[in-house]
Protein 1
Amino acid sequence: MEHDITLSLEDAQSLSQRILRKTGFSEGHVEAITRSMVAAQRDECHSHGLYRLLGIVETARMGGLDPQAVPEVIDQAPGIVKVDAHYGSSLLAFEQGLAPLQEKAERNGIAVLMINHCFHFSALWSEVEALSARGLAGLAMNPTHAFVAPAGGVRALLGTNPFAFSWPRPGGTPYTFDFATSVVARGEIELHRRAGNAIPDDWALDDQGQPTTEATAALAGAMLPFGGHKGSALSTMIELLAGPLIGDALSHETQAANEDGTGQPCHGELVMALSPRAFLGEQSEAGLLHAEKLFEEILGQGARLPSKRRFEARARSLTSGVSIPAALYRDLKALVDDNTPRPHA
Amino acid sequence: MEHDITLSLEDAQSLSQRILRKTGFSEGHVEAITRSMVAAQRDECHSHGLYRLLGIVETARMGGLDPQAVPEVIDQAPGIVKVDAHYGSSLLAFEQGLAPLQEKAERNGIAVLMINHCFHFSALWSEVEALSARGLAGLAMNPTHAFVAPAGGVRALLGTNPFAFSWPRPGGTPYTFDFATSVVARGEIELHRRAGNAIPDDWALDDQGQPTTEATAALAGAMLPFGGHKGSALSTMIELLAGPLIGDALSHETQAANEDGTGQPCHGELVMALSPRAFLGEQSEAGLLHAEKLFEEILGQGARLPSKRRFEARARSLTSGVSIPAALYRDLKALVDDNTPRPHA
């Protein structure tokens, strides 16, 4: 068995930048994508870290994702920033919408950033944490692909539709959660399939709409929403707010849009920001201190706050760097040395 | 066994009005509370229908709820309507905040109604449906009492914190859900206790923080959130947004605030409205039609939309009136004939 490769955060950043430049991404996309991938690797979210660069490069080379796309920021309404990503990555679109979103949220109390026509392959927590770092409460959601059957249904229709929230905590890491509205992540079923293990019978349906404990049958069928009809309802809300409300695709349309059926992750995203200063005026600091009572009570009874493991990983990585499997490191290095022509250069 | 009593909607309305007037409620409160109670009874939500008047009268007589309170509407920010209920019912406060909320949502795209210091004893679906009836998407949430342990915890801390959403559908009943973030409603455990039945072991903990199948032990202990750590996180978000963010109480504070410990439901509420017209401009009708595709797909695979049973009950009640148990009817009539002095008259 090979050892993992340890990289400093600077080396991880440099590796990501070189891969993305080689693939033909504009410098704005190189920086935005690298920030997100390195942040995920730093927090030991391996599936959204450097590993994800393999898929991004493949998507760009297949020609769906435009690595040179210039996001267009539109002042849609006093409380809405619209960014048309023009089929580039969501990440640069988010970064360009962040300042006007903050400005609108602080003036109005609440504001929305709608991102259209973006390729989405990153975790949402880094975006809602960009808001809580600015003293705002943030929510984010997006459709994905039709992997999940609605409660009581038999076929995949809803996405795994992530829902993320972050709340600013004075002097500490924020209160942040970011969860898929499916029972488990799709990758979890994939891991069971590789290991030849059965899955619990409440994770998924087979292609006949029957509950299954076979991972292979589950992947060919439909995952189930978390929490039964309640999670199904929440996921449906995400489809509506981050789909039709912003003039963008539903999860079951994202796959159909792709000719070869591999289902590239192209859809919209909705981000909300709420300003404690606007809600509470001079009492906003008192409001944030009041919220601390809730966290103290949660921790005081031995429960943990979401993202605890991620924040612990972050502290470790900031001093010791990040570790990735040697095989992944080789695959990533190969992308730097690759001589495939750039699709959009 | 006694037969149920059937009342026309007009008679149900008149009965509610007479009870509330007799208890000393101002005419504004009489109308707002009656509208909500009769709407719930019409939709056969028995626990939030005429039955609920018994608790409202008791709460008013105990002196916590001010039946003459005049809600104060404050223009808190361009995107925030604040209504201080001044310890009256949430329902009149909501009705008075509705028009400015709609106006702000249509101008800005998104707006919030924050209600403070209200007594809350109604279902949220009637409020989010007031928004969808005006062509807006609506969300509503509030803390309740500390009945639910956080995931991984051992003691009641979070409320049953309802979360409601409604989406306008062209020419039909809206897409609406309204669920408690506990596994089941507290009344469900109470029903099991009365029937002497065991409860499933994932509903609640006993007062030692251990899973229990005994309803009595569960009522003395803590309920569990739906969907494990995901539902727990969602419930925590509701505590923060409808508590400290709006300068109002957390669930574990609402009970402590009441001297006799019976825990009157006095806290805040947060309502959000989003305007498809502001998000989509001339494409807003197309956006609503696009959403219909999702509902068609859900129904096409044999799943049902939330609130289906309620809308069917509504159609029945509009032609046939509502039925309530004879004993409840006698209890309600007794409130009309009661000669207890009015607390605030």
Note: The longest helix of chain B spans residues 90-108.
Protein 2
Amino acid sequence: MAAPLRLGIAGLGTVGIGVVKIIQRHADLIAARAGRPVVITAVCARDRSKNRDADLSGYAWETDAVALAERADVDVFVEVMGGSEGAARASTEAALAAGKDVVTANKALLAHHGQALAEMAEAAGLAIRFEAAVAGGIPVIKALTEGLAGNQMRRVMGVMNGTCNYILTRMETAGLPYEHVFEEARQLGYLEADPNLDVGGIDAGHKLSLLAAIAFGTRVSFDDVQLEGIGQISIDDIRHAGDLGFRIKLLGVAQVSGRGLEQRMTPCLVPADSPLGQLQGGTNMVVLEGDSVGQIVLRGPGAGEGPTASAVMGDVIDLARGLRLPTFGRPATSLVEAVPAKVAAPAPWYLRMTLLDKPGALAKIATALGEAGISIDRMRQYGHEGGHAPVLIVTHKASRDDISHAISRFGATGVLVGEPVAIRIEEV
Amino acid sequence: MAAPLRLGIAGLGTVGIGVVKIIQRHADLIAARAGRPVVITAVCARDRSKNRDADLSGYAWETDAVALAERADVDVFVEVMGGSEGAARASTEAALAAGKDVVTANKALLAHHGQALAEMAEAAGLAIRFEAAVAGGIPVIKALTEGLAGNQMRRVMGVMNGTCNYILTRMETAGLPYEHVFEEARQLGYLEADPNLDVGGIDAGHKLSLLAAIAFGTRVSFDDVQLEGIGQISIDDIRHAGDLGFRIKLLGVAQVSGRGLEQRMTPCLVPADSPLGQLQGGTNMVVLEGDSVGQIVLRGPGAGEGPTASAVMGDVIDLARGLRLPTFGRPATSLVEAVPAKVAAPAPWYLRMTLLDKPGALAKIATALGEAGISIDRMRQYGHEGGHAPVLIVTHKASRDDISHAISRFGATGVLVGEPVAIRIEEV
């Protein structure tokens, strides 16, 4: 049997300890599958005295991740610290400079520096693997980069932030407002230290930008992801969407059209009986659409010790087996600069507004929509309450601009109470 | 760029022509991803004059698959003819003997001869790849063999015959009996020439046996798959199962316990709101459960030109990229002979029977169940019709033997009309 593959693990949080546990528990199984033993030679974390749920006594200890990355007895640098700058970036660069392959769970690092790191790695004949960075335990990077490599990808979609999906699901099932469930999630420890990474869509946007690069052969361009969080989603909209047969998800969509590369991470309505609509709680889902394969749906845990460590180990075992690919599935130097689409593809829209209880109010709204070139698929008016009438409209396909234009016309009708809500309906 | 990878395609049916089309349409995309061109040098089918939906004029033509397999200008032999014996087997063996890698969509061939072929390939340093053989376009072999390689697998499940799922779905939605929908499916061309391959569960059983070998490191043992087709499923059971919150699926399950390796391809009830329960029509689904990752669900088209060709191309591009693994994820010589479980794991059961409208009839059945050591989770008695009362029972966990024992006791009560129906409820 070949020589062991020696890992240095930087970061002993949930994921790092998960990796340690798998390697300790399944040494024989991994060696049988990889064709060689996989061992840990050194680990790294700031605080050595902290009580951790694994026996680390057999490993050399570094307090500096760069020092770990440069150790002669490390073949693969496993970066599970997180953060797009600082120690994570410095140690990843140091590992590549020292001729080590890198396995990382760090979506922020790659979303911001993926192109430079991939070029650095590939110039040196090294691999950067990041299955754990996207959708936790779901082997989606592998499915997209390898399994579907014969396809021209049409669209990639995903619910890739479990915390947001938990919040939206809990709002729906318990009938609680956003602020209440946000606070619950915070107390349960589901939120990042900066909650905007979750609820603002940034974390999921990082992931989407990595999938888009692989799918479309473009340089990672996180800055071009249209980001909109879930903070404006009301329990009213969740209920009304449900009445119309939809659920609201923080949905990432990447697709290429004549308009360019579209990357959106925004709340969308999806049919409640679609796989995306049926996804409840913290589970993740990625939908991959290719010209030959049609639609593939992958579902699984998007976070947690076991699932994320499973993804890290998939990458590690690939490297142990000698399976090596360019970071984004083709040489980084061949990735093209994406032309960002200025406008998103047209879609049906969900509109909710409150009208004054005046004769002809609804007709004025319908007229304004027609004048903006938008046709109505379904409209529903609810019973009047205190002189106000809630109205729901599902439009036929329209651009975001057309919808904004229509909404500004609504304002001129004099029958509108407050601001209308407009949420895109993604056709899945 | 490296030298082209040269394919010889044996079989110009749906899948073979699908592969030709992808290579013709996406030559540049594939070369960019694979790092080298992928070209077809020769093809093979019996009837050259047949009109096929692709331009084959640029390829050498063989009428004998063995001759194709042995051509000096073929690097990879793509076997998409089908059949476990005859030309498929002979040409695959010839390809390996001639030092060619093999990509195949042939589940029957591998279910029957996988061990011998894998040993032959690995002794010569060659690869046999078969993503297209299981669940069509879903990259499940890759997910299981590579992505989840850090997991001890607990259970693998799947709905892997689209025709059966189409029939069961159509029976439910149209309220039509099995015989009627079977005939529809035949006329639509959904059924194999020997329909028992589909509705008898054989085709899906072949696939399950391949997944089990990878998941558990055991030799393929199709003969140990417990096979039961869908021919006995009645519209009554589909309706009653629905009333109880279940759907009936032809479900494959492979798992290892203290009893040994269990492989079943049988009709089962699954919760209607689970991913498996929600699967409608011809779509396939595979559920992979590992000790670290938890549950991963993969969903996609299980057949058809594009999806199956997509899977073939994933394997071809892997080979072009130099990604090579043992056929079943670890050396074939290290695979162990599975000890087949003599009895399946206990499960809840769905029982349906008709009782005579006599006082105490239901009590007698309940008593018989209790005497067989089976406790009742739910029981439902419907209105009497013509002196007969339909009764549904959902039991707590029981073995198949206990259920058979109870059913024989029912017979002795003298209140039973006809034979009871018993269907396992798989906990998903």
Note: The first strand of chain B starts at residue 5 and ends at 10.
